[in-house]
Design brief:
Blueprint (H helix, E strand, L loop, with lengths): L2 H36 L1 H12 L3 H9 L1 E4 L1 H8 L3 H13 L3 E6 L2 E6 L2 H5 L1 H8 L14
Antiparallel strand pairs: 1-3, 2-3
Length: about 140
């Protein structure tokens, strides 16, 4: 077996193992999502506890759509950068948001639990906000 064939074989083995790991991660995610849906009442009680009566925290959460940095979130919502930063950290500590570095800045986004239990849908109704965190327009 040539060096090139050994390298190709090793690469195929690594790719195969990565595929197996990816499958297991997907299975774990689906199991977790199912467990959260089954215990939805308890999850929403926790969501209510996290947000309490903080419309600003709900706005920051909703506006964190994976395309905005702290500064962009502050501008979008008309809030002070420092206040937004504190709320982002609090939401990250609650495992609801995380940031991903991109181009010298951190972009904030919701974690998959949002889709699983519908946190965005809940917050838009609870605080009369649009999905981007701004006040919802009243219907005439």
């Amino acid at each position: 077996m040539t060096k090139q064939e050994r390298t190709l074989d090793a690469t195929q083995q690594i790719l195969s193992r990565l595929g197996q790991i990816e499958h297991k991660v997907d299975s774990l995610g689906q199991t977790h999502a199912f467990a959260l849906r089954v215990d939805k009442e308890r999850v929403f009680a926790e969501v209510k506890h996290i947000f309490k009566d903080s419309q600003r925290k709900a706005q920051v959460y909703l506006a964190a759509d994976g395309t905005r940095s702290v500064n962009e979130l502050a501008t979008h919502l008309g809030m002070k950068r420092q206040n937004v930063g504190v709320l982002l950290k609090a939401l990250a500590d609650e495992n609801l948001l995380e940031s991903i570095p991109e181009g010298g800045r951190d972009l904030w986004h919701k974690l998959p639990v949002d889709r699983t239990v519908g946190i965005t849908r809940f917050l838009t109704t609870e605080y009369s906000l649009s999905a981007d965190g701004r006040p919802a327009k009243k219907k005439k």
